[in-house]
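Onboarding guide, step 5: your first structure request.
Type a short instruction followed by the sequence, for example:

Predict the 3D structure of this protein.
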Amino acid sequence: MSIESSARAQDERRKIFKGFAAAAMVVLCWSGFNIVSRLGGRSHLTPYDIAALRFGVSGILLCPFFVFGRHSVTWLQLLVLACLGGLGYGLFVYSGFALAPAAHAAVLVNGGIPFATVLVSSLAFGYRPGRRAIASLALASIGILLIGIQSFSEENGSTGSQWLGDLFFLCAASCFASFGLLLKKWRVHPWETTVGIATVSMLVYLPVYALFLPKGLALVPTSLILLQCLYQGVIAASLAGLLYAYANQTIGPMKASLMLALVPGISALAAIPLLGERLGLTTLLGVILVTCGAVLGTTNQAHR
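The system replies with structure tokens like these:
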């Protein structure tokens, strides 16, 4: 192997390592997202309030970079990405929080994204997962099912509309899976993706929110609003969005999305000290299986 080839191989390994590191940070960010969103869901904040804080804060922070930056995608492509990864995902997931227990989001959204990614890529792009990818999805699906058993059996304060909230969570997973696949197909730069989605989502959503949607901001303490602003607008929408776009470009949408299957388990573990929830043996076994499935899938060298 020549010195030049060796250098290229080393650069590729370093790039892949950074991609997995970015995906790991996304897992941590999204695990915290479920905890913080659950706190918001227990308050008088409406789903539209939380969405406004998400899009408003991220849009204000990143809009100058969008205005003065260079653009490699068309306005139509940017609008599609914003509708899927910004507005669509955000509105579906926050509407789900209003109707179904937040624990369902960890299972149906974060656990559902890898499966939605495979389904959408198979139908739209002709992707055929290999045996190892199928095995990893099978392990993860069993683990997610076990995690969901306890979450779905504890119907505290459930209503007849809970099924609709669960459907919203599945729609959110489908939106984000489609968003990730289009990022890879169109080869959009991660930074351009993040600032573009933040700006377009803000410009489209905030006028509608201000004029037509119900609000509960005046009914909650300022500390809760600041927490939601920091996490939803800075960490979830800006930081995690940038990291996911980078991971998507470096390790591919399949591996990046499969790592998100770790979120339900981490959320369940974090809920013990932070929310006073207990972790049963069934859930613990599910965490182990999801972890094994994610590790198996992300070490698969087949289709990216």
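Each response can be followed by summary notes, for example: Residues 137 and 242 are 25 Å apart (CA to CA).
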